Amino acid sequence: MADVKLTHVKKIYSNKVEVLRDINLDIKQGEFIVFVGPSGCGKSTLLRMISGLEEISGGTLEIDGQVVNDIPPALRGIAMVFQSYALYPHMTVYDNMAFSLQIAKVSKADIDTQVRKAAEMLQLTPYLDRLPKALSGGQRQRVAIGRAIVRRPKVFLFDEPLSNLDAALRVATRMEIANLKESMPDSTMIYVTHDQVEAMTLADRIVLLSAGNIEQVGSPLELYENPANVFVAKFIGSPAMNIVPCQIAQTGEQTKVTVADNSVQTAVNTAASEQGKPGFFGIRPEDLHVADSEEQGFLSGKVFFVESLGESTLLYVKVPGCEELVIAKLIGTLPTQRGDLVHLTADAQKMHLFDENELAYGR
Ligand code: ADP
Description:
The chain has about 375 residues and is α+β, with helices and mostly antiparallel strands. It has helices at about 45-50, 95-105, 110-120, 135-150, 165-185, 195-200, 220-225, 230-235, and strands spanning about 5-10, 20-25, 30-35, 60-65, 65, 80, 155-160, 190-195, 205-210, 215-220, 240-250, 255-260, 260-265, 275-285, 290, 300-310, 310-320, 325-330, 340-345, 350-355. Helix content is about 25%, strand content about 35%. The strands form four sheets. Strands 6-7-8-3-9-10 form a six-stranded mixed beta sheet, sandwiched between helices. The site of adenosine-5'-diphosphate has 11 residues, from helix 1.
């Protein structure tokens, strides 16, 4: 149960490539923090540095106010849950969970209390006498989590714990982890995933990384509603936010956005000139609607592809001047077909504007 603080932390592997640049992060006791980002962005490296499995090349790491850069993993008060559960195959669930406490010479009675408490929390009580091979993947991962819990660590680290499970088990085990967080509100948890849905559903705060840098830190809804830049806008949310190159001009309070020959007014303050300058218009697929007429439309183009999902329909529209297809997510089923011309309007309150360098205006 502790704060974790990273100050100017960087990582250079022996091949001299700087894979983490200047990481500054203040994690408070009891927070559930998710490191998320595309493969290779450095999230596992960051987690492994906190655990002590990987050396820190620069900067300081503090746990509970103490600099731990040179403290070995076993003495840092952390417990890590890996992607592969790494259970001892010849030991029962009970013994797998008890093992680290036996090594630490904890009394039999205390071990029993801890193991049974963790088993109860993870709904593993009926399985305590089983061997790992007689468990499902999700149950095995819960045993791995139980093994971490019994040690009562200051900080829990999870390295993609759900990525070996199939889709249904992933959802169920994700809920177990959310429950765990509820039942251990004082425990600090740091969780790595490449899956933005896991990040959105579990995190108190998300740390979104790309290429060794932190792009944004904030609550899931902060990142969803106020992305700091185009990268964050496209990473959080599925289907991703549409990003359309545009011209942005401001007259007084009003900002005019122009895509191809169509213009729309927004209330975002861009401090752009009246002549206008290039930038990017962002709108989420669910914030686009089909207009009744061409005049009311803002993004117009031919439908390239229709996906009917039952409760909603995705239209992929080829808008002139925009390389990527614009996606509109519309409620229900539609008669629209490939090749139809559609005119889309956007909710004024939901528009995002980014400058030439892909940084958000109005933040
Ligand atoms: P992620 O977990 O986000 O997929 P990693 O932290 O595993 O990313 O890797 C970040 C970068 O560091 C990648 O470019 C990866 O190739 C590199 N890397 C990871 N481990 C090592 C290592 N032991 N030696 C050299 N480069 C490494």
